[in-house]
# Entry
Amino acid sequence: MPSVSSSITTALGIGSGIDTGSLVTSLVAAVRDPKEQVITNRQSLTTARISALASASSSLDTFADALSSLLSGTGYAGTPASNDPSIANVSLLPGGVPKGLPAQLEVRQLATARTLASTPVSGATAATVVGEGELTLTVGGQSATITIGSANNSYTGLAAAINGAGLGVTASVVTDTQGTRLVMKGATGAANDFSLTSVSGDDLADFAWAGTDSATMVSMAAPQNAIIKIDGVEQHYASNTVDTAIANLRIDLNKAAPGTTVTLATSEPTTTMRDLMVEFVEAYNTLMKGLNTATATGADSTSSGVLNGEASIRDMRRQLATMTSTSLTATGSYKTLSDLGIATNRDGTLKLDTDILDKAIAADPSAVVQMLNPAVSSTTNPGLAGMMDAVRDKIQQKDGSLAIATSKYKDLAEKLTEQLEKLDTQMTNYEAQLTTVYSKMETRLTALKATQSYLEQQIEIWNNSDS
# Structure
């Protein structure tokens, strides 16, 4: 039979070793953890949704920017060509696409350079002396002194000194059956005429020329500018290579042909346009598959996409889906992507019928190119890149569904953070309350323990008295 003292001890828990600090912590955790888990789970989902919306917008930007960059390149603008390369040939210059083609070119005159030749000296060689002294070489407003001394007194030495003057005049020594002579040639263009005047040395004076031929120095060609007409406008150039008449286009003048018109035009980039359609469908499908994954409906929340049920993404998919039926031009044989064989699958991705595309390109390549990549885009003929930019701008507009959804989730994220902070405050207060309660309980238990000790002593005395 239990004693009175043991019953009191059991009832009060005295001596049970209860850690009130741990008890308080456990009780707070039991209240806090479920609430905190709900908030943190919602925080994780909200953060994931904000990230997914940003990713969708970024993917759309990447797609639109890549398309614009691709179509602005020369590969999708065609290759410039001349219908008579023997008169003039053309090629692309880096930095952009030529504008203003086709153009009509007439080469009225080629640019030429001043060419001088000394009288051949029979029996002479490149090492034959020419005489010591000085000559002055003048090109435009610049002059240089040509000095011939004992170290360079030869045809070869004279040519080297002229070349070393750095004024754009080249000299060479020619030896043939007629003998040896000095040949000099300047740069093309009327402004690049030159003269060689004598300063000292009688023998060296034989190589002087100042506009008048002599018995020892003769002009073989006079300098002149190239003269061309482009679409009837006359233009003059010092060189036969013209790279400023039409932006981003180099024109090489090969032959003067007054009265003959050469057409400079751009060939249709039919092969690259076919490749463009294939690449466009592939890139579009990559974007759409990403959206499909984000909005997928699973058996439960863990297997569903993070944006499942999100209206802004449904709107984004709807806007993208209109691209196949949107008119890219108001004129021509083909007006929409569907006319070129692009159709929409049930999951929103695209499929391309290359047979239809090839027939369209074969039938009217100019119409296909003009529809997809017009030389000058407009509201009625935006082209593929212009349409993509318009769709992107509509999806990403400030008051659009995507922006509203992003703002909504950011606001929710802030509220959840506030809820977590509020829970922290509540649990801190709750912990303080429990600590106070158990502190008072400890005080009472201490008093009860003193009473228990007193009672135990009295009982012991009673028991001894009975014995």
Remarks:
- The CA atoms of residues 333 and 363 lie 9 Å apart.
